[in-house]
Amino acid sequence: MATEAAPAHDAGSYILHHLTFLQLDLKTWKIVEGQPGFWILNLDSVFFSVFLALVYFIIFRIAARKAHSGVPSRFVNFIEICIEFVDSQVKDAYHHGAKFVAPMALTVGLWIFLMNFMDMLPVDLLPLLAGKAGLEHLRILPSADPNITLAMSITVFVTAFAYSFRAKSFKGVGSEFLFHPFGAKNPIVQALLVPVNFLLKCVEELSKPISQGLRLFGNMYAGEIIFILLACFTLSLSAPEAATPTNLASFFIFAALAVATVVLFFVGKGRVWGVFLPLALLLGIPLCGLIGIVPAAGASSFSQIILATGWTLFHILIISLQAYIFMVLTVVYMAMAADHH
């Protein structure tokens, strides 16, 4: 979610600041900045991933302890709905005997949803608090880190690939690599097709974790960028010379008008309060800002809050959909690992 900017006075440095990880060099055990390499660990991504995994565990632990045979509470009922939804998805796609697939899908889906939900927090909130604690950089969205998303997709791939040996045996897996999709009755022709089959199977298998991980990363990274760009609307107010009483008053007044506009859209009754007045505010204030009738700081804050609210509502769908897609692909890959061809 967008918010007023932290102390950085130009858009380029502000965006770069928010896209820089808090990194640890495992060779020197020192905090570094913007360093690629195998031995570089993104501490913020790892921390929030582990923290959200613990949140998931605690939530379900509490739900399990509160569950009983009587009428469930709203919290337990919500958890049961989540479990039943995932279980129905697994039953539709997976028709084999492994009992760990449903818990695996539930964990993957809700863990990724919690990661994605971090994008709903104000852009500058946790980085600002981290700065007060002496940390120069902090990225709070683990699913916008390709290392995290690819690590999860590779884990799913390795699990599915290992399970395929149990479901099909070494002979079954080997025959899929060597004799499918092209086969021939003639032994010589079949021998010539073996390298082609092997190459196609390798491409098919390797594309699974890459596409699964990069799809999640790309969507969440794009959402993060949009929130950062929206925060740039009021970036100029972070400069000391711009933080005048007039600009600050304009900011808060028009921010309140933006909130009122959103509220009227949702709860306003009748055509005047529910349609015409919020539309007039929505179109009139930015236009007045362009022609100089209202202060630029006020028009910027109004536009920022309106656009951020709209994008936030839409982004809730995105973060849920991406978690669902990752979960479904996990189940599908497990089903493909167990299917015999």
Mean pLDDT: 87
- The number of distinct structural domains comes to 1
Largest sheet, described in full?
3 strands, antiparallel
Helix content: over 70%
Provide the succession of SSEs.
Answer: HEEEHHHHHHHHH
Q: End-to-end span in angstroms?
A: 47 Å
| Spatial strand sequence of the major β-sheet | 2-1-3
The coarse silhouette is elongated
Q: Which percent range describes the beta-strand content?
A: under 5%
* C-alpha Rg (nearest Å): 26 Å
Unreliable stretches: 3-8
Helix count, per DSSP? Answer: 10
The computed structural class is mainly alpha
* Beta strand count: 3
Description:
With 341 residues, the chain is mainly α. It has one domain. Helices cover 72% and strands 3% of the residues. It is built from 10 helices and 3 strands. The chain has helices spanning 11-18, 43-66, 74-93, 101-117, 125-132, 146-179, 187-231, 245-267, 270-291, 296-338, and strands at residues 23-25, 30-32, 40-42. Helix 8 runs antiparallel to helix 9 (270-291). The radius of gyration is 26 Å and the shape is elongated. Residues 3-8 have low confidence and may be disordered.
